[in-house]
Amino acid sequence: MRTILFVLTVLGVISLAFWAYRENYATQAALEQIEQLHRDIRQAHARLAVLKAEWAYLNRPDRLRDLAELNFDRLGLLPLAPEQFGLIDQVAYPAPKVPMIDISRGVDVSSQEAGQ
Amino acid sequence: MSLRIPLRPLARILSARDSGEDPSAIEAENRARRHEEMQARARGRAESRLLVLSLFFFAAFAVIGVRMGMLAASEPMEPRAVALGAQISAARADIVDRHGRLLATNFDTHALYAQPPQMIDPERAATELAKVFPDLDAAKLKKDFTGTRKFLWIKRKISPEQMQAVHEIGEPGLLFGPREMRLYPNGALAAHVLGGASFGEEGVSAAEVIGVAGVEKHFDARLRDPARTAQPLQLSLDLTVQAAAERVLMGGMKLMNAKGATSVLMDVQTGEVISVVSLPHFDPNKRPRPLTEGDASDSPLFNRSVQGVYELGSVFKIFTAAQAVDLGLVNPNTMINTAGPMKIGGHRIGEFRNKNYGTISVSDIIVKSSNRGTGRLALQIGAKRQQDFLRDLGFFEPTPFEIVEARGGRPLLPERWTDLSAVTISYGHGLSSSPMHLAAGYAAIANGGTRVTPTILKRENAPKGPRVMSPEAAKAARKMLRAVVATGTASFGEVPGYAVGGKTGTADKPNAAGRYYEDKVIATFASIFPSHDPKYVLVVTLDEPVETSGDKPRRTAGWTAVPVAAEMIRRVAPLLGVRPEIEPAPIAGITHTSSN
């Protein structure tokens, strides 16, 4: 009885040690992964910041104005003016739809008997 | 250790035997005494062991207790996962406009430094570097590289192309340090508000970026706070409006041959500054050095909107008229005699070009801009009440506008506020203030009589300031301002659909000797629009303008500042979403003439 208990205890200790060893390495791997993810996030943030700065730089009012002037022939962009505000009354109602006349069959029109 | 006593001491045994006593009793007595001694010794030893053991336990429990206490008291955090946050890259918060468009951000770049002891071919490195950076001097670099120096900075910021070119030199003694640099993608736009940034303490692997002017300096601690770098600082500026205002003002400044110009556009309810321009301006990415000699206002760094403290002239007349109406002294139709001569404290008060307007209404005093008329109103108000009113409007303190330069814009007040001061201040002379002060004062008239504090931060709902005049007085003042544009000195200010109201002001510039220049003026137009329901205040000031289309040069604000302001309103109001409206006509007074 004592021997069985002893063997079981030893086995228990070995299995616990194995479990702890595995957990230790799993933790380290997870931490490394976190670090890697943080690095990725940092890089993504840096990239995002660069893209945002570039977007802001490309959309700076000076440049947009110059581009609008350069491409005036194609775009015809002008600064917003008070005259461009409209009222809802100035928008015409859509014209009522005219029903289509079915003229799939030929219609003969003649003036032969008109005099009669 | 005491002397060991034998169990059967011979002397006592012999004498006991002689006296017929039992010698074993002596032995028993001595034995008992010896046992007692042994017991006492053992107890002492055990007690000292217990003491040591209890000390040990006490120490162990104390350590555990202290550690537990420390853990309980400190912030709980995961040691590894948090230390490597994503925030490290953003050392300074961005600045954005009221719609979230970027005004200032950070950019990763590199600094170039050299460690001459590690160099293989210092002379070649020097000549090659001078080729990459034309502004560097090859001879000086050679001297530095071959001398005794162990370390030197070569360039604070370099572009990726330049970095590649330096890499291609292939010199191990040339090294790069990562740098965060402040970038203003819109260039000179809103330069005076943003200010600029530069490097503080520098190390090889990092350098701190500190604000040197404008909001960058005013909010330096907030922008650098690591907990808030993710939230951008949102200003009340509107990027498109600012760009349009800068363009119009730049054109106006050139057309009117002015030395400088400034404009302030403010929301009359919240005090948010939508656009503030000061020309000439600069690029905050390459902030110029401040002038070390001469007049500070000649530098592009000079912010005319808050630092330009000048006598602004007749634009102040409306405050006098509004206060006179508020106090119930007059109404807009009260007739006032403006005929000369008028002498106060030995000084003659004259009119523009020595005109004489005769007896006219209070409203016409503003429309025709009569100095003697407002002077007489000021005498009725009295110096004390005039001071209180102007103090309430904020003309006694630097504006609380959140850029560092604003603190320098302290208004210049007369030392003694005599009747003469009251009269001259009533038409804007003898009290110097900045255009920002003026805009805040006009905003109070425009919003129905509550004080406005200018701010550069976006405010959702600003608390209403204390009341400085009655809504009726403010309304009467607005009607007068509208009349100035409709029929008076600011007729060029009419913008169809926006019912502009405003007042012109032309003040002679003082020279260094304290006299006034004959031919240098500050022309100001302070306006509100739409005047029947004001939403915005616009102040345009031109420094030394002269309009030369006529046969003689014209310098009055009506000819210089007003057309610029009108064009600005025409461009900016649609951008602000203000729809042109037909001004509500005054309700026709119907009187019954017959009762049958």
Structural class given helices, strands, pairing of chain B?
alpha+beta
Which radius of gyration of chain A do the C-alpha atoms yield? 41 Å
**Low-pLDDT residue spans of chain A:** none
**Largest beta-sheet characterization of chain A:** none
Overall strand count of chain A = 0
What is the end-to-end distance of chain A? 135 Å
Fraction of residues in β-strands of chain A: under 5%
Low-confidence stretches of chain B: 81-89
Mean pLDDT across all amino acids of chain A? 87
Classify the helix fraction of chain B into a percent range.
Answer: 25-40%
Number of strands of chain B: 18
| Basic shape of chain B | elongated
Q: What structural class do the secondary elements of chain A suggest?
A: mainly alpha
Radius of gyration of chain B, Cα only, in angstroms? 42 Å
Largest β-sheet summary of chain B: 5 strands, mixed
Morphology of chain A: elongated
- Cα(first) to Cα(last) distance of chain B is 144 Å
Largest interface: A-B, 27 and 35 residues
Which key phrases capture this entry?
heterodimer; A: 116 residues; mainly alpha; 3 helices; 61% helix; elongated; B: 596 residues; alpha+beta; 5-stranded mixed beta sheet; 5-stranded antiparallel beta sheet
Explain the overall architecture.
The complex is a heterodimer of chains A (116) and B (596). Chain A has helices spanning 2-58, 61-70, 72-75. By secondary structure, chain A is an all-alpha fold. Chain B has 596 residues and is of the alpha+beta class. In chain B, a hairpin with a 5-residue loop joins strand 16 (501-510) and strand 17. The longest helix of chain B has 51 residues, at 23-73. The relative contact order of chain B is 0.10. The interface between A and B is medium-sized, with 27 and 35 residues.
